[in-house]
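Following up on my earlier thread - several people asked me to post the actual chain instead of describing it. Fair enough. Here it is, all 450 residues.
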Amino acid sequence: MHLDECIFVTKELRKSKMMANRSLSTEELSKPRTRRDVLKLGGSLAASTFAVPTILSACDTKNATPKTLQVYWNTGHMFDAYASVTQQFEKDHPGWKVNVEPYQWTDMRAKILANFAAKKVPDLVEEPGGWVQEFGLAGNILSLQSYLHASGKQMGFPNDWQANTVTRNSINGQVYGIQLHLTCVLLFYNKDLLAKAGIKQPPTTWSEFLAAAQELTHDNVYGCGVNANVWPWLMQNGVQYYDPANNVVPMTTPETYEALQFQADLVHKYKVSPTPTSLTDASTTQPLFSAQRVAMFLTGPWDIKPILTSSPNLHWDIAQALTKKVQATSTAGTSLFIPKGAKNPEMAWELLQRYVALDTEIAVSKEARMPMPRKSWAASPQIQTLNRIAPFAQGLSYAQSSSGELDRTGHSGAIGTLFTNAFEDIIYRSRPVPETMQQFVASANKLLKK
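Reply from S.P.:
Thanks for posting it. Predicted structure:
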């Protein structure tokens, strides 16, 4: 028997026993009773007396196997504040265990696709952006409308969420995901290294960035670190990921080639950046920055906590996005969804609400300086005075989604994988940019025509 059912039944039995005992007043006991009355009374008492220990025995939590709520989470977001939410959830639901499995995004994508194919899915998933639309259009995740109808007002949805986060997680008027984080990519720089090189201000343009990186590269220190955050560079040069009017990926332009070649040249031509260890995990440059082996790199708030933890005495700061044709950067942020076929969707929904609650958002921001999607979060005095949050509040005022239009096609995940493969060919194998991008665009547009 399920533990919740056991508790309910036990309470009812105890209530019945109390009622039975209360009914045995002195007056009633003094009444003459037939043999049938005595047998009936004895049976009632026996049932109420012996049923409780019998049920309690069946509900022995020490020997019961806990029910498991399966959650997929990003490795970079395993914050203590979320662990506390998980632990409290388990305390509030005896007999339940929340199993949080951490994955890098590429590994998680492979895992969830295999889960969909096998029709054996987790209960709750954190996604990097774009999966809600892709998997929702494919019929692989639950619409959250019925849950929001029941408890949306209580949790402040949608009015307390930034409007674009609601739109991006909706398909045909139905909400399929709830925004968890709302971030953007900015320039992190080492203040001491820049000062030592005589650089008074962080760079604001590509030419200034290159000049600073060259000046900073010496004595086993690299001026910058190329990483997975390629989209700010492309957007700063006016590159468009998707053309909805013609339903094509239009990335065979001089601006595209220039932005990608600039990244490759930082590594191979100018040698001001080490070869990145990964172009799928945006956090791999942070250890080099913390160790003062890299002076500048583009990243988001997910790297703030690791820097503060590993190098508490490091003098560093955050600057706004660079400018080429325009000042631009990519907005990012994760969302939560419940797969269709989840064994425990109601419990997953309750846990989801706890993860996106305002007090949880504030706790995570204090711990990791992670920006959040709630309007009440931005208005909170605790957040307005929080160190290192202000640059992202400014950056989010002009940041844009690189894949917002593409997400609505349902192909952004697959096309994103193709793009990552192309970028890896350019950086790791030094393949010619125009040829590589022409092949990528041909494959991407083939998917869009399906």
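Confidence is low (pLDDT under 50) at residues 1-61. That should answer part of your original question.
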